Amino acid sequence: MTENTEMDPGLDPSAAAEPSTRKVDRGAVREAGRFGKIINAGGFIFAVAICASACILLIEVFLRYVLNSPTVWAHETTTFLCGISFLYGGLYCASRNSHIRVVLIYDILPSRVRRVFDILISIASFIAAGFFTYAAWIMSEKALFSPVGDFRMERSGSAWNPPTPALVKTFLLIVMILMTIQFLILSWNYIRRVTEETK
Fold first, then answer.
1. Cα separation of 33 and 38, whole Å?
2. What is the Cα–Cα distance from 9 to 28, expressed in whole angstroms?
3. Looking at residue 25, what is its pLDDT?
4. Which of 6, 89, 166, 185 has its CA 20 to 30 A from that of 152?
């Protein structure tokens, strides 16, 4: 059996010659830099958090329905672990360039125009992430400080009453700061790639 190596006549030859940065290859895209590699490696921790939350739920089912002795912490712990994992997931996808998007127009563009669009998309994402970071700061400030300025972590108000709301909002702020930095790095590296190719 032979592999068909004939190129589609509708494809740009230069696009076929170079690997697409949109493909996920077990890690962060090249333009994400070392920062992206670190973010990508950190995903393992949050994958473990998802598995831990599943284990906690299994233990809770056993305690509740077999031993008739439910815990007060299982539900909020699993919600917290899943919540921070989903928040990190956005940053993780940004470093891998694997976030959900509509590529109907992008996919039909020539590769050189795509490179320009990569720059514009990254800059727009950087600006948007900056605004979301500011909004996350306002939210986390209210969750960490009382109206008079005293340090007071917002709590859930349940029987266990952990400070998970404050922790989640603070983690969101950290993720948004990191995401803003990641989009800035992506923008810079996409610009650098285009300028190097035009030389």
1. 9
2. 31
3. 52
4. 89
DSSP, residue by residue, 58-72: HHHHHHHHTSS---S
Per-residue DSSP letter, 6: P
Place of tokens 């669009």: 117
Q: Extract the runs of DSSP E, i.e. beta strands, from 2-142.
A: none
Residue among 115, 110, 116 at smallest CA distance from 12: 110
- Inside any domain, residue 52: yes
- The CA distance from 142 to 149, in Å, is 9
* DSSP state string for 168-189: HHHHHHHHHHHHHHHHHHHHHH
Q: DSSP letter for 149, please.
A: S
Total length of the chain: 199
**Residue 184: inside a domain, yes or no?**
yes
> Residue 19: inside a domain, yes or no?
no
- What would the mean pLDDT of 154-173 be, rounded to a whole number? 96
How many domains is the chain partitioned into structurally? 1
Domain range for 123: 30-198
Query: Rounded to an integer, what distance in angstroms lies between the CA atom of residue 182 and that of residue 98?
Result: 14
Question: CA–CA separation, 86 vs 70, rounded Å?
Answer: 26
Residue 100 has pLDDT above 70, yes or no: yes
Q: Which two structure tokens, joined as six digits, stand for 46?
A: 């949050």
Q: Is 110 exposed, middle or buried (0-12, 13-18, 19+ CB in 10 A)?
A: exposed
The whole-model pTM stands at: 0.83
Residue 140 lies in a domain: yes
